[in-house]
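ERR on first pass: missing label on line 2. Operator R.T. fixed the label and resubmitted. Corrected input:
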Amino acid sequence: MSRLAILTAPLILILTGCQGNSDPDLDQTGERPELPEQNDALVPAMEIPTPQGWGDDLPTVPEGYTISAIAKDLKIPRQVLVLPNGDILVAEGSGGNAPKLRPKDIIARWIKQRGKSSVEGGDRITLLRDRDGDGQTDLQTTFIEGLDAPYGLAFVDNTLYVANQDNLVSFPYTEGAIRITEPGRELTKLPAKINHHWTKAMTASPDGSKLYVGIGSNSNVGERGMDVEEDRAVIWEIDRETGASRIFASGLRNPTALAFDPWNERLWAVVNERDELGPQLVPDYLTSVREGGFYGWPYSYYGGNVDPRIKPARPDLVRQAIVPDYALGSHVAALGVDFASDGGLGGQFSVGAFVGQHGSWNRADPSGYKVVFVPFTGGRPRGEPVDLVTGFLKDGHARGRPVGVTYDAERRVLLVADDVSNTVWRIAPKVASRGSPTTQAR
Amino acid sequence: MDRTVNSSRSFAHPLHAILLAFPVALYPAALLTDITYLNTAQIQWTNFSSWLIAGADLFAGLVVAWALIGLFSGRARHSQGRGILYLIVVAVMFILGVVNAFQHARDGWHSVGTVGLVLSILCTLLAFGAAFIANGNTYSVEDRT
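pass 2 clean. output:
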Protein backbone atom coordinates (compact mmCIF):
# COMPACT_ATOMS: atom_id res chain seq x y z
CA MET A 1 0.00 0.00 0.00
CA SER A 2 2.88 2.37 0.56
CA ARG A 3 3.82 1.97 -3.09
CA LEU A 4 0.33 3.18 -3.93
CA ALA A 5 0.77 6.21 -1.73
CA ILE A 6 4.04 7.08 -3.44
CA LEU A 7 2.40 6.80 -6.82
CA THR A 8 -0.62 8.91 -6.00
CA ALA A 9 0.90 11.64 -3.86
CA PRO A 10 2.13 13.75 -6.79
CA LEU A 11 -1.25 13.47 -8.45
CA ILE A 12 -3.02 14.77 -5.39
CA LEU A 13 -0.55 17.64 -5.33
CA ILE A 14 -1.40 18.43 -8.94
CA LEU A 15 -5.10 18.34 -8.09
CA THR A 16 -5.00 20.64 -5.12
CA GLY A 17 -1.98 22.81 -5.61
CA CYS A 18 -2.55 24.24 -9.03
CA GLN A 19 -4.65 27.33 -8.55
CA GLY A 20 -2.50 30.21 -7.36
CA ASN A 21 -3.84 32.64 -4.84
CA SER A 22 -4.67 36.24 -5.64
CA ASP A 23 -1.91 38.79 -5.30
CA PRO A 24 -3.44 41.66 -3.33
CA ASP A 25 -0.77 44.06 -4.59
CA LEU A 26 -1.96 43.74 -8.15
CA ASP A 27 -3.88 46.85 -9.20
CA GLN A 28 -6.72 45.56 -11.36
CA THR A 29 -8.87 48.67 -11.58
CA GLY A 30 -8.47 51.81 -13.61
CA GLU A 31 -7.21 52.67 -17.06
CA ARG A 32 -4.22 50.29 -17.02
CA PRO A 33 -4.94 47.16 -15.03
CA GLU A 34 -2.08 44.83 -14.13
CA LEU A 35 -2.65 41.47 -15.79
CA PRO A 36 -0.91 38.41 -14.26
CA GLU A 37 0.17 35.27 -16.11
CA GLN A 38 -2.59 32.94 -17.22
CA ASN A 39 -3.30 30.17 -14.74
CA ASP A 40 -5.80 27.72 -16.19
CA ALA A 41 -5.83 25.43 -13.15
CA LEU A 42 -7.02 21.85 -13.24
CA VAL A 43 -9.55 22.70 -10.55
CA PRO A 44 -10.48 26.39 -10.79
CA ALA A 45 -10.67 28.26 -7.50
CA MET A 46 -14.28 28.71 -6.45
CA GLU A 47 -16.01 30.36 -3.55
CA ILE A 48 -19.76 30.73 -3.43
CA PRO A 49 -21.08 32.88 -0.58
CA THR A 50 -24.53 31.39 0.10
CA PRO A 51 -27.55 33.65 0.66
CA GLN A 52 -28.52 34.85 4.10
CA GLY A 53 -31.16 37.37 5.18
CA TRP A 54 -30.41 40.98 6.17
CA GLY A 55 -32.26 40.82 9.48
CA ASP A 56 -32.40 44.39 10.75
CA ASP A 57 -29.17 45.35 8.97
CA LEU A 58 -28.86 47.52 5.91
CA PRO A 59 -26.14 47.78 3.29
CA THR A 60 -23.37 50.19 4.20
CA VAL A 61 -23.18 53.64 2.60
CA PRO A 62 -20.64 56.42 3.29
CA GLU A 63 -21.18 59.08 5.95
CA GLY A 64 -23.69 61.64 4.70
CA TYR A 65 -25.82 59.18 2.76
CA THR A 66 -28.86 57.10 3.60
CA ILE A 67 -30.08 53.79 2.24
CA SER A 68 -33.52 52.26 2.49
CA ALA A 69 -35.46 49.44 0.89
CA ILE A 70 -38.25 50.77 -1.31
CA ALA A 71 -39.45 47.36 -2.52
CA LYS A 72 -39.21 43.91 -0.99
CA ASP A 73 -40.43 40.42 -1.87
CA LEU A 74 -39.75 40.91 -5.56
CA LYS A 75 -39.10 37.95 -7.85
CA ILE A 76 -35.46 38.34 -8.94
CA PRO A 77 -35.24 42.09 -9.71
CA ARG A 78 -32.62 42.92 -12.35
CA GLN A 79 -32.90 46.35 -13.92
CA VAL A 80 -34.77 49.50 -12.94
CA LEU A 81 -36.23 52.36 -15.00
CA VAL A 82 -37.66 55.65 -13.75
CA LEU A 83 -40.64 56.98 -15.73
CA PRO A 84 -41.15 60.72 -16.31
CA ASN A 85 -43.77 60.92 -13.53
CA GLY A 86 -41.36 59.35 -11.03
CA ASP A 87 -42.88 55.87 -11.05
CA ILE A 88 -40.22 53.17 -10.86
CA LEU A 89 -40.32 50.04 -13.01
CA VAL A 90 -38.45 46.89 -11.99
CA ALA A 91 -37.78 44.05 -14.46
CA GLU A 92 -37.87 40.66 -12.74
CA GLY A 93 -36.92 37.29 -14.13
CA SER A 94 -34.41 34.54 -14.74
CA GLY A 95 -33.56 33.21 -18.16
CA GLY A 96 -31.22 30.91 -20.01
CA ASN A 97 -31.83 27.43 -21.32
CA ALA A 98 -28.35 26.24 -22.21
CA PRO A 99 -28.20 22.45 -22.62
CA LYS A 100 -25.67 20.54 -20.54
CA LEU A 101 -23.02 19.50 -23.03
CA ARG A 102 -20.43 18.11 -20.64
CA PRO A 103 -20.44 16.56 -17.14
CA LYS A 104 -18.85 19.84 -16.05
CA ASP A 105 -21.95 21.83 -17.02
CA ILE A 106 -24.08 19.86 -14.58
CA ILE A 107 -21.61 20.33 -11.72
CA ALA A 108 -20.96 24.02 -12.46
CA ARG A 109 -24.68 24.78 -12.55
CA TRP A 110 -25.19 23.11 -9.20
CA ILE A 111 -22.32 25.06 -7.64
CA LYS A 112 -23.41 28.46 -8.97
CA GLN A 113 -27.02 27.80 -7.97
CA ARG A 114 -25.94 27.77 -4.33
CA GLY A 115 -25.17 31.50 -4.51
CA LYS A 116 -28.57 32.46 -5.85
CA SER A 117 -31.98 33.22 -4.43
CA SER A 118 -34.37 30.25 -4.32
CA VAL A 119 -37.22 32.45 -5.55
CA GLU A 120 -38.41 31.75 -9.08
CA GLY A 121 -38.06 34.61 -11.57
CA GLY A 122 -41.21 36.73 -11.87
CA ASP A 123 -41.18 37.22 -15.68
CA ARG A 124 -42.90 40.51 -14.98
CA ILE A 125 -42.40 44.22 -14.39
CA THR A 126 -43.37 45.70 -11.06
CA LEU A 127 -44.33 49.36 -10.61
CA LEU A 128 -43.37 51.33 -7.50
CA ARG A 129 -45.07 54.64 -6.79
CA ASP A 130 -44.16 57.20 -4.17
CA ARG A 131 -47.27 59.40 -4.00
CA ASP A 132 -46.07 62.01 -1.52
CA GLY A 133 -42.40 62.25 -2.43
CA ASP A 134 -41.17 61.03 0.96
CA GLY A 135 -38.92 58.40 -0.59
CA GLN A 136 -41.14 55.55 0.58
CA THR A 137 -43.15 53.34 -1.73
CA ASP A 138 -46.89 53.82 -1.34
CA LEU A 139 -47.93 51.44 -4.12
CA GLN A 140 -46.18 48.26 -5.27
CA THR A 141 -48.08 46.51 -8.02
CA THR A 142 -47.55 44.28 -11.03
CA PHE A 143 -47.30 46.51 -14.11
CA ILE A 144 -46.84 43.93 -16.88
CA GLU A 145 -46.81 40.16 -16.52
CA GLY A 146 -46.32 37.18 -18.81
CA LEU A 147 -42.91 38.34 -20.03
CA ASP A 148 -39.94 36.07 -20.76
CA ALA A 149 -36.99 36.93 -18.49
CA PRO A 150 -37.26 40.72 -19.05
CA TYR A 151 -34.02 42.60 -18.39
CA GLY A 152 -33.37 45.75 -20.45
CA LEU A 153 -35.86 48.61 -20.16
CA ALA A 154 -36.11 51.85 -22.14
CA PHE A 155 -38.68 54.60 -22.38
CA VAL A 156 -38.98 56.77 -25.48
CA ASP A 157 -41.85 58.87 -26.77
CA ASN A 158 -44.53 57.50 -24.42
CA THR A 159 -43.55 53.95 -25.30
CA LEU A 160 -42.00 51.41 -22.98
CA TYR A 161 -39.50 49.02 -24.55
CA VAL A 162 -38.78 45.72 -22.82
CA ALA A 163 -35.94 43.39 -23.83
CA ASN A 164 -37.01 39.84 -23.06
CA GLN A 165 -34.44 37.09 -23.38
CA ASP A 166 -35.72 36.29 -26.88
CA ASN A 167 -37.35 39.44 -28.27
CA LEU A 168 -37.83 43.18 -27.95
CA VAL A 169 -41.38 44.30 -27.30
CA SER A 170 -43.00 47.73 -27.03
CA PHE A 171 -45.96 48.86 -24.93
CA PRO A 172 -47.82 52.15 -25.44
CA TYR A 173 -47.90 54.05 -22.16
CA THR A 174 -50.31 56.63 -20.84
CA GLU A 175 -49.07 58.80 -18.02
CA GLY A 176 -50.08 57.54 -14.61
CA ALA A 177 -50.89 53.98 -15.77
CA ILE A 178 -50.39 51.35 -13.08
CA ARG A 179 -51.05 48.31 -15.25
CA ILE A 180 -50.71 47.29 -18.89
CA THR A 181 -52.68 44.21 -19.88
CA GLU A 182 -52.63 44.26 -23.68
CA PRO A 183 -49.78 42.21 -25.16
CA GLY A 184 -46.76 44.10 -26.37
CA ARG A 185 -45.87 44.55 -30.03
CA GLU A 186 -42.76 42.66 -31.07
CA LEU A 187 -40.28 45.11 -32.56
CA THR A 188 -37.70 42.42 -33.33
CA LYS A 189 -36.57 38.99 -32.29
CA LEU A 190 -33.31 38.85 -30.37
CA PRO A 191 -30.69 36.09 -30.66
CA ALA A 192 -31.93 33.47 -28.20
CA LYS A 193 -30.48 30.11 -29.24
CA ILE A 194 -28.92 28.44 -26.16
CA ASN A 195 -28.77 31.79 -24.25
CA HIS A 196 -25.78 30.78 -22.12
CA HIS A 197 -25.68 34.49 -21.26
CA TRP A 198 -29.33 35.42 -21.52
CA THR A 199 -29.54 39.00 -20.20
CA LYS A 200 -30.51 41.50 -22.90
CA ALA A 201 -29.33 44.85 -21.64
CA MET A 202 -30.83 47.87 -23.37
CA THR A 203 -30.65 51.63 -23.63
CA ALA A 204 -32.01 54.21 -26.06
CA SER A 205 -29.93 56.75 -27.96
CA PRO A 206 -30.26 60.30 -26.62
CA ASP A 207 -32.34 61.35 -29.66
CA GLY A 208 -34.57 58.30 -29.19
CA SER A 209 -34.18 57.02 -32.75
CA LYS A 210 -32.16 53.90 -31.90
CA LEU A 211 -32.20 51.20 -29.26
CA TYR A 212 -29.02 49.39 -28.27
CA VAL A 213 -29.16 45.82 -26.97
CA GLY A 214 -26.29 43.88 -25.39
CA ILE A 215 -26.20 40.21 -26.40
CA GLY A 216 -23.84 38.02 -24.37
CA SER A 217 -21.79 35.12 -25.68
CA ASN A 218 -23.03 31.53 -25.72
CA SER A 219 -20.02 30.19 -23.82
CA ASN A 220 -17.13 31.14 -21.59
CA VAL A 221 -14.58 31.12 -24.38
CA GLY A 222 -16.07 29.37 -27.40
CA GLU A 223 -16.24 25.90 -25.83
CA ARG A 224 -19.62 25.26 -27.44
CA GLY A 225 -18.05 25.83 -30.85
CA MET A 226 -18.05 29.08 -32.79
CA ASP A 227 -21.12 28.11 -34.84
CA VAL A 228 -23.36 29.06 -31.92
CA GLU A 229 -21.61 32.41 -31.47
CA GLU A 230 -23.12 34.06 -34.51
CA ASP A 231 -24.72 37.34 -33.39
CA ARG A 232 -23.38 36.78 -29.85
CA ALA A 233 -20.94 38.81 -27.77
CA VAL A 234 -22.17 41.86 -29.66
CA ILE A 235 -24.16 45.04 -29.19
CA TRP A 236 -27.01 45.46 -31.63
CA GLU A 237 -28.26 48.79 -32.87
CA ILE A 238 -31.98 48.59 -33.56
CA ASP A 239 -34.02 51.16 -35.44
CA ARG A 240 -36.89 52.12 -33.17
CA GLU A 241 -39.33 52.67 -36.03
CA THR A 242 -38.65 49.63 -38.21
CA GLY A 243 -36.99 47.14 -35.87
CA ALA A 244 -34.11 46.72 -38.34
CA SER A 245 -30.97 45.64 -36.54
CA ARG A 246 -27.23 45.59 -37.18
CA ILE A 247 -24.13 44.74 -35.19
CA PHE A 248 -22.84 47.98 -33.68
CA ALA A 249 -19.79 46.46 -31.94
CA SER A 250 -18.48 42.92 -31.36
CA GLY A 251 -16.05 40.86 -29.29
CA LEU A 252 -17.74 42.02 -26.05
CA ARG A 253 -18.11 38.75 -24.09
CA ASN A 254 -21.12 39.72 -22.00
CA PRO A 255 -22.29 43.33 -22.20
CA THR A 256 -24.64 43.36 -19.22
CA ALA A 257 -25.57 47.02 -19.00
CA LEU A 258 -25.53 49.94 -21.43
CA ALA A 259 -25.84 53.69 -20.95
CA PHE A 260 -25.12 56.91 -22.82
CA ASP A 261 -22.92 59.41 -21.04
CA PRO A 262 -24.46 62.87 -20.58
CA TRP A 263 -21.31 64.76 -21.63
CA ASN A 264 -20.42 63.46 -25.08
CA GLU A 265 -23.48 61.27 -25.64
CA ARG A 266 -21.36 58.23 -26.36
CA LEU A 267 -22.50 54.66 -25.72
CA TRP A 268 -20.84 52.87 -22.77
CA ALA A 269 -21.07 49.27 -21.66
CA VAL A 270 -20.01 47.22 -18.68
CA VAL A 271 -18.73 43.86 -19.87
CA ASN A 272 -18.10 40.62 -17.98
CA GLU A 273 -14.90 39.00 -19.14
CA ARG A 274 -13.91 35.31 -19.29
CA ASP A 275 -13.34 32.82 -16.47
CA GLU A 276 -10.90 30.04 -15.65
CA LEU A 277 -7.66 31.82 -16.43
CA GLY A 278 -6.97 32.39 -12.75
CA PRO A 279 -8.40 34.45 -9.90
CA GLN A 280 -7.10 37.70 -11.40
CA LEU A 281 -7.94 37.20 -15.05
CA VAL A 282 -9.70 38.67 -16.84
CA PRO A 283 -10.82 42.01 -15.30
CA ASP A 284 -14.37 43.03 -16.15
CA TYR A 285 -14.52 46.46 -17.68
CA LEU A 286 -16.38 49.67 -18.41
CA THR A 287 -15.78 51.01 -21.89
CA SER A 288 -17.05 53.46 -24.41
CA VAL A 289 -18.24 51.47 -27.40
CA ARG A 290 -16.90 52.41 -30.81
CA GLU A 291 -19.07 51.82 -33.82
CA GLY A 292 -17.73 48.77 -35.67
CA GLY A 293 -15.23 48.11 -32.87
CA PHE A 294 -13.99 44.62 -31.98
CA TYR A 295 -13.07 44.07 -28.33
CA GLY A 296 -11.27 40.74 -28.51
CA TRP A 297 -13.59 37.96 -27.35
CA PRO A 298 -12.93 35.08 -27.63
CA TYR A 299 -9.52 35.38 -29.29
CA SER A 300 -7.90 37.88 -26.95
CA TYR A 301 -8.49 40.19 -24.00
CA TYR A 302 -7.36 43.75 -23.23
CA GLY A 303 -6.14 44.16 -26.76
CA GLY A 304 -3.55 41.62 -27.83
CA ASN A 305 -3.47 39.18 -24.88
CA VAL A 306 -4.18 35.97 -26.78
CA ASP A 307 -6.40 33.33 -25.19
CA PRO A 308 -4.89 29.96 -26.22
CA ARG A 309 -8.09 28.06 -25.46
CA ILE A 310 -9.73 29.05 -28.74
CA LYS A 311 -8.64 27.26 -31.91
CA PRO A 312 -8.17 28.00 -34.71
CA ALA A 313 -6.50 31.24 -33.61
CA ARG A 314 -7.30 34.47 -35.38
CA PRO A 315 -4.24 36.76 -35.28
CA ASP A 316 -5.94 38.98 -37.85
CA LEU A 317 -8.76 39.75 -35.40
CA VAL A 318 -6.43 40.00 -32.39
CA ARG A 319 -4.54 42.75 -34.18
CA GLN A 320 -7.76 44.80 -34.39
CA ALA A 321 -8.83 44.23 -30.80
CA ILE A 322 -9.55 47.45 -28.91
CA VAL A 323 -8.26 47.87 -25.34
CA PRO A 324 -11.23 48.76 -23.11
CA ASP A 325 -11.22 52.10 -21.30
CA TYR A 326 -11.43 51.15 -17.65
CA ALA A 327 -10.98 47.93 -15.67
CA LEU A 328 -13.33 47.18 -12.77
CA GLY A 329 -11.53 44.15 -11.28
CA SER A 330 -11.47 40.43 -12.06
CA HIS A 331 -14.70 38.43 -11.70
CA VAL A 332 -16.59 41.34 -10.05
CA ALA A 333 -19.49 40.61 -12.44
CA ALA A 334 -20.55 44.15 -13.27
CA LEU A 335 -24.26 44.02 -14.12
CA GLY A 336 -25.34 47.63 -13.86
CA VAL A 337 -24.15 51.03 -15.05
CA ASP A 338 -25.61 54.53 -15.03
CA PHE A 339 -24.14 58.01 -15.15
CA ALA A 340 -24.33 60.76 -12.57
CA SER A 341 -25.25 63.98 -14.25
CA ASP A 342 -25.89 67.43 -12.92
CA GLY A 343 -24.02 67.02 -9.63
CA GLY A 344 -25.01 63.41 -9.02
CA LEU A 345 -25.21 62.41 -5.38
CA GLY A 346 -22.75 65.17 -4.43
CA GLY A 347 -19.31 64.90 -2.87
CA GLN A 348 -17.15 62.22 -4.48
CA PHE A 349 -20.18 60.96 -6.37
CA SER A 350 -20.78 64.06 -8.51
CA VAL A 351 -19.33 63.29 -11.93
CA GLY A 352 -18.95 59.71 -13.10
CA ALA A 353 -20.59 56.34 -13.42
CA PHE A 354 -22.25 54.07 -10.87
CA VAL A 355 -21.48 50.38 -11.39
CA GLY A 356 -23.35 47.50 -9.73
CA GLN A 357 -21.15 44.45 -9.12
CA HIS A 358 -22.99 41.18 -8.61
CA GLY A 359 -19.91 39.42 -7.20
CA SER A 360 -17.53 36.62 -8.09
CA TRP A 361 -17.58 32.82 -8.08
CA ASN A 362 -14.33 31.97 -9.87
CA ARG A 363 -11.84 33.01 -7.16
CA ALA A 364 -11.19 32.00 -3.55
CA ASP A 365 -11.24 35.62 -2.33
CA PRO A 366 -14.62 37.05 -3.35
CA SER A 367 -14.61 40.28 -5.36
CA GLY A 368 -17.45 42.61 -6.31
CA TYR A 369 -20.59 42.36 -4.14
CA LYS A 370 -20.86 46.16 -4.04
CA VAL A 371 -21.80 49.30 -5.92
CA VAL A 372 -18.88 51.51 -6.90
CA PHE A 373 -18.55 54.94 -8.43
CA VAL A 374 -16.08 55.53 -11.25
CA PRO A 375 -15.07 59.21 -11.31
CA PHE A 376 -14.96 60.90 -14.72
CA THR A 377 -12.90 63.88 -15.84
CA GLY A 378 -13.38 65.44 -19.26
CA GLY A 379 -15.80 62.70 -20.26
CA ARG A 380 -13.30 59.91 -19.50
CA PRO A 381 -12.96 57.65 -16.45
CA ARG A 382 -10.04 58.78 -14.27
CA GLY A 383 -8.67 57.45 -11.01
CA GLU A 384 -9.67 54.63 -8.70
CA PRO A 385 -13.28 53.55 -8.20
CA VAL A 386 -14.90 54.64 -4.93
CA ASP A 387 -17.10 52.28 -2.90
CA LEU A 388 -20.65 53.56 -2.57
CA VAL A 389 -22.72 50.63 -1.30
CA THR A 390 -21.00 47.75 0.52
CA GLY A 391 -21.76 45.24 3.28
CA PHE A 392 -23.44 42.71 1.02
CA LEU A 393 -21.05 39.99 2.23
CA LYS A 394 -20.95 38.99 5.87
CA ASP A 395 -19.29 35.95 7.46
CA GLY A 396 -19.00 34.18 4.12
CA HIS A 397 -22.66 34.68 3.25
CA ALA A 398 -24.20 36.97 0.65
CA ARG A 399 -27.01 39.02 2.12
CA GLY A 400 -27.58 40.59 -1.28
CA ARG A 401 -26.10 40.91 -4.74
CA PRO A 402 -26.39 44.19 -6.65
CA VAL A 403 -27.54 44.08 -10.26
CA GLY A 404 -28.92 47.13 -12.10
CA VAL A 405 -28.17 50.65 -10.94
CA THR A 406 -30.30 53.62 -12.03
CA TYR A 407 -29.60 57.24 -11.21
CA ASP A 408 -32.74 59.34 -10.90
CA ALA A 409 -31.44 62.82 -11.72
CA GLU A 410 -34.68 64.56 -10.82
CA ARG A 411 -34.79 63.26 -7.27
CA ARG A 412 -30.99 62.83 -6.94
CA VAL A 413 -31.20 59.26 -5.76
CA LEU A 414 -29.62 56.01 -6.88
CA LEU A 415 -31.76 52.90 -7.20
CA VAL A 416 -30.11 49.47 -6.92
CA ALA A 417 -31.79 46.15 -7.73
CA ASP A 418 -30.67 43.25 -5.51
CA ASP A 419 -31.53 39.78 -6.83
CA VAL A 420 -30.61 37.79 -3.71
CA SER A 421 -32.61 39.71 -1.09
CA ASN A 422 -35.18 40.54 -3.82
CA THR A 423 -35.07 44.18 -2.83
CA VAL A 424 -34.73 47.57 -4.51
CA TRP A 425 -32.46 49.87 -2.52
CA ARG A 426 -32.61 53.66 -2.60
CA ILE A 427 -29.49 55.65 -1.81
CA ALA A 428 -29.76 59.39 -1.23
CA PRO A 429 -27.62 62.15 0.27
CA LYS A 430 -28.68 63.13 3.77
CA VAL A 431 -30.35 66.50 3.66
CA ALA A 432 -28.12 68.98 5.43
CA SER A 433 -30.34 72.01 5.91
CA ARG A 434 -33.16 71.72 8.43
CA GLY A 435 -36.65 72.78 7.61
CA SER A 436 -36.41 72.33 3.89
CA PRO A 437 -39.42 70.56 2.41
CA THR A 438 -37.45 67.38 1.70
CA THR A 439 -36.10 66.95 5.22
CA GLN A 440 -39.07 64.93 6.31
CA ALA A 441 -38.22 62.47 3.56
CA ARG A 442 -35.41 61.33 5.82
CA MET B 1 -14.33 -40.91 -4.45
CA ASP B 2 -12.20 -41.73 -7.31
CA ARG B 3 -11.84 -38.80 -9.61
CA THR B 4 -9.47 -36.11 -10.72
CA VAL B 5 -10.63 -32.50 -10.89
CA ASN B 6 -8.67 -29.94 -12.80
CA SER B 7 -10.24 -26.59 -12.06
CA SER B 8 -8.73 -23.54 -13.65
CA ARG B 9 -10.35 -20.26 -12.71
CA SER B 10 -9.79 -16.72 -13.79
CA PHE B 11 -8.86 -14.18 -11.19
CA ALA B 12 -11.98 -12.04 -11.60
CA HIS B 13 -15.56 -12.99 -10.95
CA PRO B 14 -17.65 -12.64 -14.15
CA LEU B 15 -19.52 -9.62 -12.71
CA HIS B 16 -16.22 -8.01 -11.88
CA ALA B 17 -15.08 -8.68 -15.43
CA ILE B 18 -18.17 -6.92 -16.76
CA LEU B 19 -17.44 -3.85 -14.63
CA LEU B 20 -13.85 -3.83 -15.87
CA ALA B 21 -15.08 -4.07 -19.47
CA PHE B 22 -16.31 -0.46 -19.27
CA PRO B 23 -12.92 1.17 -18.58
CA VAL B 24 -11.36 -1.21 -21.09
CA ALA B 25 -13.74 0.06 -23.77
CA LEU B 26 -14.26 3.68 -22.72
CA TYR B 27 -10.70 4.88 -22.00
CA PRO B 28 -9.44 3.81 -25.45
CA ALA B 29 -12.56 5.35 -27.02
CA ALA B 30 -11.72 8.62 -25.23
CA LEU B 31 -8.18 8.36 -26.56
CA LEU B 32 -9.55 8.12 -30.10
CA THR B 33 -11.89 11.09 -29.65
CA ASP B 34 -9.02 13.08 -28.11
CA ILE B 35 -6.86 12.38 -31.15
CA THR B 36 -9.72 13.36 -33.43
CA TYR B 37 -10.23 16.63 -31.53
CA LEU B 38 -6.55 17.46 -31.77
CA ASN B 39 -6.70 16.82 -35.50
CA THR B 40 -9.91 18.73 -36.25
CA ALA B 41 -10.47 21.30 -33.45
CA GLN B 42 -14.15 20.34 -33.71
CA ILE B 43 -15.43 20.91 -30.20
CA GLN B 44 -17.89 18.02 -30.18
CA TRP B 45 -15.02 15.49 -30.09
CA THR B 46 -13.77 16.80 -26.76
CA ASN B 47 -17.34 16.72 -25.45
CA PHE B 48 -17.43 13.02 -26.38
CA SER B 49 -14.12 12.50 -24.56
CA SER B 50 -15.54 14.14 -21.42
CA TRP B 51 -18.49 11.77 -21.26
CA LEU B 52 -16.43 8.68 -22.15
CA ILE B 53 -13.94 9.48 -19.39
CA ALA B 54 -16.72 10.21 -16.89
CA GLY B 55 -18.32 6.84 -17.67
CA ALA B 56 -14.99 5.02 -17.48
CA ASP B 57 -14.19 6.69 -14.13
CA LEU B 58 -17.52 5.62 -12.65
CA PHE B 59 -16.91 1.95 -13.44
CA ALA B 60 -13.21 2.20 -12.62
CA GLY B 61 -14.22 3.34 -9.12
CA LEU B 62 -16.40 0.25 -8.70
CA VAL B 63 -13.57 -1.95 -9.96
CA VAL B 64 -11.16 -0.45 -7.42
CA ALA B 65 -13.65 -1.13 -4.61
CA TRP B 66 -14.06 -4.72 -5.77
CA ALA B 67 -10.30 -5.21 -6.05
CA LEU B 68 -9.80 -3.90 -2.53
CA ILE B 69 -12.44 -6.15 -1.01
CA GLY B 70 -11.18 -9.03 -3.13
CA LEU B 71 -7.85 -8.95 -1.34
CA PHE B 72 -9.54 -10.30 1.76
CA SER B 73 -12.31 -12.42 0.34
CA GLY B 74 -13.23 -14.07 -2.90
CA ARG B 75 -10.96 -15.55 -5.50
CA ALA B 76 -8.02 -13.17 -5.25
CA ARG B 77 -7.18 -14.19 -1.71
CA HIS B 78 -5.67 -17.34 -3.16
CA SER B 79 -3.10 -15.21 -4.95
CA GLN B 80 -2.44 -12.15 -2.89
CA GLY B 81 0.60 -11.03 -4.87
CA ARG B 82 -1.42 -10.78 -8.02
CA GLY B 83 -4.28 -9.17 -6.11
CA ILE B 84 -2.07 -6.37 -4.85
CA LEU B 85 -0.60 -5.78 -8.30
CA TYR B 86 -4.09 -5.68 -9.76
CA LEU B 87 -5.27 -3.23 -7.10
CA ILE B 88 -2.34 -0.92 -7.82
CA VAL B 89 -3.01 -0.98 -11.55
CA VAL B 90 -6.73 -0.23 -11.30
CA ALA B 91 -6.23 2.33 -8.53
CA VAL B 92 -3.66 4.26 -10.58
CA MET B 93 -5.93 3.96 -13.62
CA PHE B 94 -8.84 5.35 -11.62
CA ILE B 95 -6.86 8.26 -10.16
CA LEU B 96 -5.39 9.20 -13.54
CA GLY B 97 -8.89 8.91 -15.00
CA VAL B 98 -10.29 11.35 -12.45
CA VAL B 99 -7.44 13.77 -13.12
CA ASN B 100 -8.21 13.39 -16.81
CA ALA B 101 -11.87 14.22 -16.17
CA PHE B 102 -10.79 17.52 -14.58
CA GLN B 103 -8.38 18.09 -17.45
CA HIS B 104 -11.23 17.63 -19.93
CA ALA B 105 -13.37 20.08 -17.92
CA ARG B 106 -11.10 22.89 -19.03
CA ASP B 107 -12.50 25.02 -21.80
CA GLY B 108 -11.78 24.78 -25.50
CA TRP B 109 -8.34 23.75 -26.68
CA HIS B 110 -7.09 23.36 -23.10
CA SER B 111 -9.54 20.49 -22.53
CA VAL B 112 -7.14 18.01 -24.16
CA GLY B 113 -3.64 19.29 -24.81
CA THR B 114 -0.53 17.21 -24.12
CA VAL B 115 -1.63 16.43 -20.57
CA GLY B 116 -5.05 15.14 -21.64
CA LEU B 117 -3.59 13.03 -24.44
CA VAL B 118 -0.91 11.49 -22.19
CA LEU B 119 -3.47 10.74 -19.48
CA SER B 120 -5.79 9.10 -22.02
CA ILE B 121 -2.89 6.95 -23.28
CA LEU B 122 -1.91 5.92 -19.74
CA CYS B 123 -5.50 5.09 -18.77
CA THR B 124 -5.85 3.00 -21.92
CA LEU B 125 -2.64 1.04 -21.23
CA LEU B 126 -3.55 0.51 -17.57
CA ALA B 127 -7.04 -0.67 -18.51
CA PHE B 128 -5.57 -3.23 -20.91
CA GLY B 129 -3.05 -4.29 -18.26
CA ALA B 130 -5.78 -4.71 -15.68
CA ALA B 131 -7.78 -6.84 -18.11
CA PHE B 132 -4.82 -9.17 -18.69
CA ILE B 133 -4.30 -9.60 -14.96
CA ALA B 134 -7.99 -10.06 -14.21
CA ASN B 135 -8.81 -12.47 -16.97
CA GLY B 136 -5.68 -14.60 -16.94
CA ASN B 137 -5.75 -17.84 -14.97
CA THR B 138 -4.86 -17.58 -11.35
CA TYR B 139 -4.43 -21.09 -10.16
CA SER B 140 -5.24 -24.64 -11.06
CA VAL B 141 -6.23 -27.22 -8.56
CA GLU B 142 -5.77 -30.92 -8.90
CA ASP B 143 -7.71 -33.03 -6.52
CA ARG B 144 -6.73 -36.69 -6.42
CA THR B 145 -8.03 -39.23 -4.13
